[in-house]
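Structure in, sequence out. Go:
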């Protein structure tokens, strides 16, 4: 007998006293679902996740979870009151027999469970919440930005962990590489409506843009029809006016329809101001070393950064990426070696801790109290790349509304704080831009725009990031900090460096070891490539995978009907079984293709 949905939301409405955040929202989550939840900052992603978790009560509608089904939620700001250490929090609601699960998750996430909660950073608290959820292994996991504050190694561990789980999950994330690797369907929140698209995340953005294009075309046709009907209403023959009152009423209905349309939110009007032209050589580091106690950040390190370079710094958390870039732009001094900066450098820094923002100041004050950008004698204007702008108008460029201008920075979400900090540094002309974890908390659309303007920036950029997709899109050089002061420099982005990293991590003995005796002659002659059958299978698998994905999409569309389970239980049961079967086959086919492709590449 088929199992009912893990979770069902029916006709959900939620407003928080203002305009509705959601209206008539319905969705179904099935066993085995791996869903990405995406949408603009402020669209209600975290709120919807809390509704799914039962932590926020909607104004109307129903949340249905079958008896015996467990739902777990990883929150962004977990409440750890009453717990002395992170391990105590992670073990809450678990027994001693589950300690090994918590410890395994903590090891993968690089979390010290003995850390006192009072001294733990926000990132450590979030990792503790994630370790707790993974150890509990509920039927449905709800993950709110799980990759934030994780380094690339921990993200890779989490990807493997989630790819192997049988539990269903819904995740909010801006990390495209993470979503592409894991999710099989996307829930898109747009202006209070949730649309579901089954299939790989790779196709989501093209589908989203097509949806927007179709809306624009429909709106254009509606406007033309209203214009034509309005002209008739003015120029119509008075003798026919009584007979054509229905047409007048139809015109009024068209106007109501247009007024009811919710225009989609625009993108932030972001741009970096060009500073004076710098010298061709921006940074020259020769033989620099830096250590704190027995921890080496770099040893005898050389780097030359030229005008226009976009250099990404990657490596595990705590390895010293931020310290290294601070050495390079002169904020710290090396223990030995020299750093020479080029001429006419104008620096702009985006720091990951958002330390430039005063939590108690308002957004207005955050812009006007900056002496370098304030317009002399005017408390309501800010100098934006040499042009005075009213504070509210400039904030609107970054998608803040007028009511937020006098609100404290402390009331902003992580994504909003990131946009405010970008507004501050973009107001100033610069030719050397330092971006330390700029992608945390930004929605995908804003991330796209940031990537574009960084790529088009005429100056030089130093970037610290764990977002592999972002690095691939913008970096011309990747500097990898590998620990114990070892640093290597590679052309290109993360995908150019990653294969070299895997090779370097192979045991040195395996790379240099010589056989004690020559292998048998028959072993020497044995081909190491694919057999005929394997090659044929490798060629056939892409079509098989595509077919399974298409069938999963159709079944997902059928099961997204929130009334199907009660209206046609037999049909629901057959569709659920078919979906599970095809998801299993798809996972096996993808695994087989990967194995054969790696074997072919190795040969």
């Amino acid at each position: 007998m088929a199992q009912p949905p893990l979770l069902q939301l029916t006709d959900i409405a939620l407003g928080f006293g203002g305009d509705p955040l959601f209206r008539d929202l319905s969705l179904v989550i099935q066993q085995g679902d791996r869903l990405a939840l995406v949408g603009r900052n402020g669209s209600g992603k975290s709120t919807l996740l809390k509704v799914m978790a039962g932590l926020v009560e909607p104004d109307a509608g129903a949340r249905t979870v079958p008896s015996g089904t467990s739902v777990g939620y990883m929150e962004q700001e977990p409440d750890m009151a009453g717990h002395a250490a992170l391990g105590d929090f992670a073990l809450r609601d678990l027994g001693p027999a589950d300690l090994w699960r918590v410890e395994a998750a903590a090891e993968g996430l690089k979390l010290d469970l003995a850390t006192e909660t009072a001294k733990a950073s926000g990132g450590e608290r979030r990792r503790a919440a994630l370790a707790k959820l993974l150890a509990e292994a509920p039927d449905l996991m709800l993950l709110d930005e799980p990759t934030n504050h994780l380094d690339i190694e921990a993200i890779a561990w989490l990807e493997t962990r989630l790819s192997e789980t049988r539990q269903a999950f819904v995740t909010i994330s801006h990390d495209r590489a993470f979503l592409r690797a894991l999710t099989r369907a996307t829930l898109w929140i747009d202006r209070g409506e949730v649309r579901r698209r089954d299939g790989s995340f790779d196709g989501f953005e093209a589908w989203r843009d097509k949806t927007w294009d179709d809306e624009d075309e429909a709106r254009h046709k509606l406007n033309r029809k209203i214009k034509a009907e309005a002209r008739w209403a003015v120029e119509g023959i008075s003798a026919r006016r009584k007979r054509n009152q229905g047409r007048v009423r139809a015109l009024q209905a068209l106007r109501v329809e247009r007024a009811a349309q919710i225009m989609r939110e625009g993108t932030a009007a972001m741009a970096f101001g060009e500073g004076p032209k710098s010298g061709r050589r921006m940074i020259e580091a020769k033989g620099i070393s830096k250590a704190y106690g027995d921890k080496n950040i770099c040893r005898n390190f050389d780097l030359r950064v030229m005008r226009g370079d976009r250099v990404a710094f990657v490596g595990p958390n705590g390895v010293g990426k931020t310290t290294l870039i601070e050495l390079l732009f002169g904020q710290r001094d090396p223990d030995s070696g020299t750093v020479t900066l080029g001429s006419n450098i104008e620096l702009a820094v985006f720091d990951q801790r958002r330390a430039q923002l005063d939590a108690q100041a308002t957004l207005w004050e955050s812009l006007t109290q900056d002496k370098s950008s304030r317009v002399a004698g005017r408390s309501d204007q800010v100098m934006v790349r040499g042009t005075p702008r009213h504070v509210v108008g400039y904030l609107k460029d970054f998608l803040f509304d007028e009511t937020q201008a006098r609100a404290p920075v402390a009331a902003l979400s992580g994504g909003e704080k990131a946009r405010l900090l970008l507004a501050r540094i973009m107001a100033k002309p610069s030719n050397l831009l330092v971006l330390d974890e700029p992608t945390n908390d930004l929605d995908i659309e804003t991330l796209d725009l940031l990537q574009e303007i960084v790529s088009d920036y005429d100056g030089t950029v130093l970037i610290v990031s764990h977002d592999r997709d972002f690095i691939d899109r913008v970096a011309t050089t990747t500097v990898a900090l590998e620990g114990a002061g070892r640093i290597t420099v590679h052309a290109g982005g993360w995908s150019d460096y990653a294969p070299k990293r895997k090779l370097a991590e192979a045991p040195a003995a395996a790379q240099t070891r010589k056989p004690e005796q020559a292998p048998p002659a028959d072993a020497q002659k044995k081909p190491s490539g694919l057999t005929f059958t394997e090659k044929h299978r490798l060629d056939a698998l892409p079509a098989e995978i595509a077919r399974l994905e298409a069938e999963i999409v159709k079944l997902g569309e059928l099961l997204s009907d929130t009334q199907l389970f009660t209206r046609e239980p037999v049909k629901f049961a057959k569709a659920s079984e078919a979906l599970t079967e095809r998801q299993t086959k798809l996972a096996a086919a993808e695994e087989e293709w990967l194995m054969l492709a790696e074997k072919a590449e190795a040969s």
